[in-house]
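Example record

The entry below shows one chain as it appears in the dataset: sequence first, then structure tokens.
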Amino acid sequence: MNYRLFQIGGVNIYTYGTLVAIAFLFGIFLAAYRARKIGEDPQNILDLCLYIMVSSIVGARLCFVVLNWEYFKRHLIEIVFIQQGGLVFYGGMIFAVACTIIFLKLKKLSILQYLDILTPSLAVGHAIGRVGCFFNGCCYGKVAGNSIFSFLAVRFPKVVERIPLGDGTISEQVIGSPPYIDHLYSAMITESDQYSLPIYPTQLFSAGMNFIFFFIMLAIFRHRKFTGQIWWSYLILYSVGRFMIEFVRADNPYVSSIPLTFSQILSIFLFITALTAYYFLSKQSKR
């Protein structure tokens, strides 16, 4: 884990924010290239992606704040501190898709055509972003224990911030990593421990899954049978993968008395919607 990449003139450049920026830029380049390749105007992608960037970050952060309102209602100023993580993918996707639909409606462009163009960018951008989550320590997994998959487990370090005081002394404050803080507050470790307990690297599971989906989407694109096939295919695959990964995520609590997380409930609805849409579009294309 290395949440801070480097400093420039006392300004921290965070690994998470840097990788999210790289994910956006690479995704825009890829979508513009694919638009040109299938005869669409890449300028439409460039115009649209500005709105997607803003709406996805707002939606992802808003969803994170709502899900963690008990904390943020006591730390309102931290709502805008996104450079160190705290974004929910589904929140970002919902806002970005809504913004995309509005933009394409106003431009009188095919919604499903452009969603197909953007989907590989979504998959690879999500994968890169999850690598950022790993360096940041957020979106972490449960303690691996003695399971057969414990060989995959990783341990996150204790992160100490050294703060100069007015009297010339240095105060040390434990600020991370998120898994370390979680285990410390849960009395699973003590402050003398330098690392968290071994946990599942769910960030890397998600990154690997999305990289695989990215290549699957590219393969489907070469043999696309109907408009919307790429978009709905990704949602079917992602909803299943996300549902499974949530079982070993530690930072997403169950919703009330239901033994499912918020993301798992959304995944179920998304899977049903995507599968239904895929079925009817596929059937329609064969007429």
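Notes for this example: The chain has a mean pLDDT of 90. The chain has two domains: 4-141+201-285, 155-197.
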